[in-house]
Amino acid sequence: MNSNGIYHNGNGSNGRYANGNGHNGNGHNGNGRNGNGHVIAPPVLLAPERVAPRRYYDTNFAVTDEYRAGLPDLQNGPASLIQGSPVAIQQVGIHNFRLPLRFLNRDGAPLMLETSVTGTVSLEAHKKGINMSRVMRTFYEHQESLFSLDLLESILHDYRTSLDSLDAHLTLRFNYPMVNESLRSGLAGYQYYQVALEARMDRAGVVRKFIHFDFVYSSTCPCSYELSQHAIMERNIAAVPHSQRSVARVSVELNDFLWIEDLRDLCLEALKTETQVMVKREDEQAFAELNAAYLKFVEDAVRLLHEQLDPDARIKDFKVVASHQESLHSHDAVSVLVKGVRGGFTPEIDPSVFATLIHR
Question: 100-117 pLDDT, tens per residue?
Answer without folding.
Answer: 999 999 999 999 999 999
